[in-house]
Each structure stands twice: as structure tokens, then as C-alpha cells.
Amino acid sequence: MQNENAKFKVQKMKKIPVEMLALGLVVGALGLAEAAGGEDVVVYSGRAEKLIQPVLDAYTAKTGVKVRLLTGGATEMLNRIAAEGARTPADLLITNDTGVLEAARQRGLLRGASSGVIERSLPAAYRAPDSSWIALSLRARVLVYNPLKAQPGEIRSVEDLAHPRMKGRIGIVTSANESFVAGFSVYQKLRGEAWAERWLKGVKENAGQRVFAKHSQIVEAVARGEIDVGLVNHYYVYRHLAEKPKDPVAILYPDQEKGEMGVAMNAAGAGLVRHGKSRSALSLMEFLASPEGQRIFAEQNMEYPVLTKVPTHTSVLKREAFRAADVRLVDLEALRSRAIALIEKAGLR
To answer: The whole model's pTM is what?
Structure first.
């Protein structure tokens, strides 16, 4: 789609050393800033264009303010803002993991917001202490399975993914995926490092070469019968079923029995960049947290809205129907570095 809002979109960037970013990327970024100009808002996004563009378009239609979107990996976007420093054209950072936003806040890359709209709308659990970042939409880490090849009794918990009986039957997303890291951070927090290391070892052995670049590829592999079970964000399953309702694909919200940890939850979010130039950046963030913005995340993406008064998509299991793991979003950043270290130690791809 080549419209005015999307023309600055780029494909996901290759990993680039931070020093190269500092020397080279600022020039391109300044060109972006000049193109944006005025009250336009420049958004650096770690989310795919199709998941964020509809709500940005709705904001433009309502306010007349254009939004310029640059996409890439969430951590890459954070590092780019750091390398560009005060000359960054970015006004808002959107990520698929609030842990990345909290890391940006702790590095001094975000600025606090004074917004009665946000403070009245969002509970404290869904925003940074200084409201420099907010959660936009929630996702649950669920098990997707092929009911012709696996039964719910086999896979009650994410722990079952590491059981020897699942060898050669599961698929996982690459360990560089932000949602994988966030979900594993929850498991590590609630079950401890010894359990976490055993789980990683078992999952690696059981998955073998079945490591996928995207969650959607896991769901498709389950539908084709190539794997029996996968670990994904919930909305990938529901979106697949909406398009192909006859496919042998089913969803299970794990760890719901007494004594089990509950479903690992994470959130996409948005943060105000400290050196952002647009006076409309806060207005955009307020719109994303508004009932109108939240409805778009719920209806088009099938994610869980942060605002409880906004209904979940009719096809999606209601939020009150399952128990979530008791880990605060703001704590995910503190867990992140150790989680990554354990993943690297295990040698996951």
C-alpha cells in the first residue's frame, strides 16, 4: 500500500552496529524529519505495518495530522533513537513489548507525559510511572494445536512442550522474537531459573529444526499437519481461523489448573520520544489509548483491549474467562536481560 502515511515505511532492518547508526543513519533520519515537518508525527514502530497502520489512519482522518511510519525490529528502533540522539525525527516509539519501552525509559530516551486523558483512562498497571509509555493492547501466549494429531490432555501447560513425548511434534518462533522473550521472562520469574533452563533445553530438543520466523508460520504449519503444537500469541490463531475456519486448528489457554502459573501476558505499547519535535505526539498517544483507538486493536487485530469497557472481538475468548500469570508489565524489562542470557546459554536459534 503506497499512500501518504506509509511512504516512509522500510522493510525490517538488518542488525547494524550502534556506531554505524550514529555515523550513518542520522543523515537519512534528518531527511525524514524534513519531509515530516510541521505537526506531522513521526512514528518508529517495532510492529508490522498491517497491525498499526489502521489506527494511525483513523487518527489522521479524525485530526488531519499526518503520521509518518518507519518500521523495523523493536530493539532496532530503540537503538536507532539512541544513536540519533537529539537529532532524531522520531516522536513516538511503538513496540510489540512493553519491556522494550521500559528499557527506553530507563536509558533516558523517553519523556514523561502530563495527560489527564491517559491517567483517567489507563490503570497504573498499564503505563509507566511517569506515563512516558503506555500499553496499547494485550496478547496472551497460547498453545495452538492440530486436533487431528494432538489432544488437549497432552498439552495442558507450556511445560508440556518440553516433555519427551513431544519430541519432533512442536514448533517455536525464533528466540529473537520479542514475544518469545517476554513470555519466557514470565515463566522464569514464576518457576525459577532451574525450571527455566530445563524447559529451554527440552523445547530446543523437541522443536529441532522447526524454528519459525513468524508466529503466523507456526499456525500455518499446525494447519498443514507439519507440527502438532506451537506456542504463539493468541490473535494469530483467531485471525487464521477467521480466514480458514475449516482448517484443523484449535487454541488452548495453558496453565489454568490450581497451582499452575496462568497465561503469560504481554502488551504492545507506545512511548513519547524525549527529543520528539511534534506537538501532536501526545495527542496521538491519547488517541491510541482512547475507546476509538482501542476498538481498532480489538476488532481488526483481535488483540485484547487495555480498556475493559471496550469489548473483545466476538470470536476471541473473553479476558475474564482465563487466568493470567501474576507478573506486572513494568517488571518485564528487569527480567529481560537474564531471560536473554538463559536463552543464549541454551543455544536457541
So the answer is: 0.85
